[in-house]
């Protein structure tokens, strides 16, 4: 009896790499990837409310400030005016220039002290074993960073003023202390700048990898050497960015200084208020806009430093 030959399967295509597709192995058909959906052309419409808010809240006032800074009113009834650069020239002379320099000095000093004090506090909170302490400090920092204006001024007057409780308890007046001075305003600003620095630098400190510290310890580096040669160079963009942020917050503060020191400490924000209200000279609204333009220029310079530093820091800590 004749037996039918057993069918032999055809060999698969040889694969020189020896992987799938080699002789004697079956090649699985690749699974088709789902096609990516492209965003619809109208997706940008979702940004229209934000752009409209930006144009109305920031664009129109900026245009009004720039226009008014280069305009002198010639007709009080119609408000018509002519082009001039006298407002900007006057804004950088005399008492106005002194106020601008004083504001920059106060902002730079408080930002520097806030940075120096805020970094150790943030590091101590992060390395603490008590989670409740960390949450409490960060929550309190979020509250205190936004505590300013008249309530802050009243709190310091009641505590460190000439008749304040702490002033009377330690006889600070006999040692030359005065809250209504440049040094007193510096201490007051630190009350909200230090918590702001804690909130700003905490994410950067959390981004420091444990492997970097372990590698430094394996190379017999001390804690001081680790911070000097590894941690601080990496954190430097974040530190400088935090300094810039604190500088801008102190530079723009108005209500606290107005309630505490008045005209005792010359500040650009106070000069703008006096020019708008006519406390010194009547009809100086355009000069106030020129002073505001000076503040905008300083803020733009500050942001021009802050944004590149933030991008550089993000590359290291991501």
Quick structural overview:
With 318 residues, this protein is mostly helical. Helices cover 64% and strands 2% of the residues. Helix 8 runs antiparallel to helix 9 (223-252).
Keywords:
single chain; mainly alpha; 12 helices; 64% helix
Query: Spans of 5+ residues with little confidence (pLDDT < 50)?
Result: 10-27
Determine the N-to-C terminus distance.
Answer: 78 Å
Average predicted local confidence, pLDDT: 82
What structural class is derived from the secondary structure elements?
A: mainly alpha
Query: Numbering strands along the chain, what is their spatial order in the largest sheet?
Result: 1-2
What's the order of the H and E elements?
Answer: HEEHHHHHHHHHHH
Give the number of DSSP strands: 2
What value does the Rg take, in angstroms? 32 Å
Morphology: globular
Question: What can you see in these coordinates?
Answer:
This protein is mainly alpha-helical. It is 64% helix and 2% strand. It has twelve helices and two strands. A two-stranded antiparallel ribbon has the order 1-2. A hairpin with a 7-residue loop joins strand 1 and strand 2. The chain is globular, with a radius of gyration of 32 Å.
